[in-house]
């Protein structure tokens, strides 16, 4: 591997590591030589991932909707040594609904997890990295932050906010040598998107899945939807020294589905 892309000797915190993009990122970071602290609300899935990765994997069961839970993760991470990389991937979606039908519970839940979770994660990481004088923070945004679509107002506004948190923090910590960027994936085949083709009994409607994937592929210049590893590779770039001159940016691994 070209030296700048290696994570050998680097320590990374991955929040939302237990599924989808986070899981693929954990695997890729281990391949790239990083030491990891994996965090998620789903303790069982987290333990499964740690066993899969082998070695001495540090884990933390946290709820990013709780500021104190995120701050405790920062203290745990800082106590283990330097933190070179902090990835905020924990996120949730809600069933599509027009703004006239959105409930306050849904609005509050998505803001608590997708927006405030990233905000406090950024604060915890930045405190450590400013002291060190180095580090890279990567936040999960979405193509939905750039282009309005019916029924996803709440998710989209949380992701638009993530982009502004990213840019603002980048200006604040850049002089200390700390970089902050967002990734804005297009449609990726992860457990997050299964709500779109699950039957009421929880089973997967494979025909509906195939039809949705085909229609999403059709709207992308590359004529395919994304795999978690596609996004993990973008995150690896932003985490590594290969992106040493990149900060305050939104990178869009989306197969060409959105070109704002
Ligand atoms: N899959 C896509 O198409 C897509 C597209 C654009 C952006 N994203 C974003 O990428 C990120 C990862 O998505 P994914 O597709 O891998 O989803 P996923 O559902 O597979 O994984 C999300 C992870 O976040 C964890 N999580 C949820 N709430 C949490 C909380 N309160 N505290 C701690 N952890 C929590 C879950 O347990 C899960 O492990 C999300 O922020 C998502 O919004 C996904």
TrEMBL record:
Family statement drawn from the similarity comment of this UniProt entry: Belongs to the short-chain dehydrogenases/reductases (SDR) family.
Lineage: Bacteria, Pseudomonadati, Pseudomonadota, Alphaproteobacteria, Sphingomonadales
Keyword Secreted: no
InterPro entries: NAD(P)-bd_dom_sf, SDR_fam
Highest taxon above the source species: Bacteria
GO molecular function, one term: oxidoreductase activity, acting on the CH-OH group of donors, NAD or NADP as acceptor
One Pfam family, short name: adh_short_C2
Keywords: Oxidoreductase
UniProt protein name: Oxidoreductase
PANTHER family in UniProt: 3-OXOACYL-[ACYL-CARRIER-PROTEIN] REDUCTASE, SHORT-CHAIN DEHYDROGENASES/REDUCTASES FAMILY MEMBER
Keyword Oxidoreductase found: yes
